[in-house]
Amino acid sequence: AKAPALPTLLLVIWELGVLAAFSLFAVRQLRFVRAVGRLTPLTGQPAVLRGEHVEAGPLVLGWLRPRIVVPADFADRFEGEARALVLAHEDVHLRRGDARINGLAVALQCLCWFNPLVHLAARTLRIDQEIACDAAVIDRHPHARRLYAETLLGSVLGGAHAPLGCHWPATGPHPLKERLIMLNTASVTPLRRKAGLALVALVASTAAGAVWAANPAAPSVEPAVITRPIWTEKPTIEDLVRYYPPEAKSAKVDGRAAIACTVAADGGLYDCTVIGETPAEYRFGDAALQMSRHFRMRPLSADGVPTAGAKVRIPIAFATAK
Asked: 320 and 255 in contact (C-beta within 8 Å)?
């Protein structure tokens, strides 16, 4: 029998890994849910569910319909303001959608089971979620910083956790230590925040000015003006008669016009504009613009100046036969 190709073999290994990772997460979630036991509404707070055992919670459990779950002894272990702080922490998880984000993280862990950085990122994500919730609670209750830290220390540090959930606190002593250190950091007042933003803006504008000063804009170079062109083609008398303004021809009025044009590489003219005409009411300038297509000059002027890209001014006199 022919051995499977390497891409096919790798695909099969990846699929088996995804299935194994999904099964592992599913088993852990199922074990945790069974360990929580039957959930009943907390007395006085029906939106909060209480587990049968003391090891379950506080946490947000679930993905499609995440709910706050507290341990069986929640009412005895957390009293007064400490209880409000714990529930406020879990409420931040709910409002921010952290449980659904963790569900997406688990899906990525299954798909990228072979990449250790994905699993490390998922763990870091959960710790950062907890620290962010801590900060939100302290912002609302700045006077309760010490009580909140003591409540954090008094929480259960269980070894098991639910893949689809948000734990309080994060499992392990190191994340807990980090959270306590963050709690000792004074929050930034609005005045200090504004002052910091102003300082950043000042530094940024100063740096931008220094960069601009170090790299001044290149001076604009005016195109050369051809004063002694050598024409290889010019309008004929027939062209002059053809483009002569009809009103001026009927009134037998002579006129003048001057145009300014840019010289193309082939000696032709483009970007022509009228810079003067008289008498203005007979539109001699428009006639001169039409005649510009019949001009062509050599690549070098009589002075030896390259003509491509240079400017040239052309006066044209219009006269009727008397």
From this structure: no
Please provide the DSSP assignment of 187-224 as one string.
Answer: PPPHHHHHHHHHHHHHHHHHHHHHHHHHSPPPPP-PPP
What residues does each domain of the chain span?
6-183, 225-318
Decide if pLDDT at 89 tops 60.
yes
Q: Two tokens at 268?
A: 């032709």
- Residue 20, H or E segment: helix 6-36
Strand partners, 225: 311
Task: For residues 207 and 225, give the distance between their C-alpha atoms in angstroms, rounded to a whole number.
Answer: 40
**Distance from C-alpha of 242 to C-alpha of 294, rounded to nearest angstrom:** 12
Q: Assess contact for 160 and 113: CB atoms under 8 A.
A: no
Q: With contact defined as beta carbons under 8 Å apart, do 60 and 41 qualify?
A: no
pLDDT band at 170 (very low <50, low <70, confident <90, very high): very low
Longest alpha-carbon distance in the chain: 119
Cα–Cα distance, 192 to 202 (Å, whole number) = 15
User: 184 pLDDT band (50/70/90 cuts)?
Assistant: low
Query: For 20-44, what is the mean pLDDT?
Result: 90
Non-local CB neighbours of 112 within 8 Å, separated by 6+ positions: 118
Cα–Cα distance between 221 and 248 in angstroms, integer?
Answer: 40
CATH architecture of 225-318: 2-Layer Sandwich (3.30)
211-264 per-position pLDDT tens digit: 656 665 556 667 889 988 999 999 999 988 899 999 998 889 999 999 999 999
Adjacent-strand bridge partners of 49 = 41, 69
Show the tokens assigned to 279. 């008498």
Token representation of residue 43? 């007395």
pLDDT of residue 148: 83
| Mean of pLDDT values over 4-14 | 88
Global pTM value: 0.53
The two tokens of residue 113 are 């089971």
Q: 203-208, long-range: CB within 8 Å, 24+ apart, which pairs? A: none
Query: Which residue do the tokens 């979630």 mark?
Result: 29
Report how far residue 257's alpha carbon sits from residue 316's, in angstroms, rounded to the nearest whole number. Answer: 5
